[in-house]
Amino acid sequence: xxxxxxxxxxxxxxxxxxxxxxxxxxxxxxxxxxxxxxxxxxxxxxxxxxxxxxxxxxxxxxxxxxxxxxxxxxxxxxxxxxxxxxxxxxxxxxxxxxxxxxxxxxxxxxxxxxxxxxxxxxxxxxxxxxxxxxxxx
Amino acid sequence: xxxxxxxxxxxxxxxxxxxxxxxxxxxxxxxxxxxxxxxxxxxxxxxxxxxxxxxxxxxxxxxxxxxxxxxxxxxxxxxxxxxxxxxxxxxxxxxxxxxxxxxxxxxxxxxxxxxxxxxxxxxxxxxxxxxxxxxxxxxxxxxxxxxxxxxxxxxxxxxxxxxxxxxxxxxxxxxxxxxxxxxxxxxxxxxxxxxxxxxxxxxxxxxxxxxxxxxxxxxxx
Lengths: 137, 221
Description:
Helix content of chain A: 10-25%
Distance between the termini of chain A: 33 Å
Number of helices of chain B: 9
Mean pLDDT of chain B: 93
Order of helices and strands of chain A: EEEEHEEEHEEHEEHEEE
Low-confidence stretches of chain A: none
Strand content of chain B: 5-15%
Number of strands of chain A: 14
Largest sheet of chain A: 4 strands, mixed
Distance between the termini of chain B: 20 Å
CATH topology of the largest domain in chain B: Glutaredoxin
Oligomer: heterodimer
Low-confidence stretches of chain B: none
Strand content of chain A: 35-45%
């Protein structure tokens, strides 16, 4: 079992193949965890498509599997994985995060309260929100 | 202090959403139980908010208006670094520092009151251009550091202490301005605070740099 942590959550994926710096997922798992899928144009997420670099297609797509780690590097997005490759973080780039902040639309998030109930920032739309952090440390 | 403010201002379409940047199960619970807040108190084990909003320390806050727009990006929430001049044995604070600390808190709370009552007409709610100018800088290094931090936290939760800690240290190395990353991975004293000698060494190494970046608000020390 391989754990993949993305902006949308945590995915436990059986049948993932992690070797060195590569993480191969089935097209279905890749789409579920990352939103990216194979289309005739290349690799696509919503309206955005990235053509595979000519001659290097095999680094990204092989049969019905996608190397999401290579895709992440190609997109210039941060990636981190454990020594044994059983846990991967596929994150958003500073460029995308900055663009989101510069829109001034507060990025939404969903977090639990101590009882486990989930709250999203968007639940409080219509109110002025003082979003304040603290820590026990 | 947020509970009183929330009660006072709830009638002005205002809410406090507090988020504990605490990675270990239960660390935040005694504090939440003692404060008995009636506003939402959330737990952010992976410091997702740090990644999304560029938060580097606590307490930092973001002001978000009714339309979900940021009108004050992440900044120190009424906190002042008076503790740097505290007597580390007696924990006594020089009088002028105590006064500045109180002033930072009062000034910040007054600004929130003004914003809650007057909304966009409050001078403390930034215009779009000013809000953008106050956004924290995110870089490839800080983004990668947050990814490593998340990986480290996941491994710690899985009981892989050594590797988890290594990723936290690596994250801190890439993003040294983040006290959230450093303190979350540091050892804690008998009061549960990450204020062992290595913390004070790191604080002293700041020299004339601030522990909390100065807050752009009239009257703030």
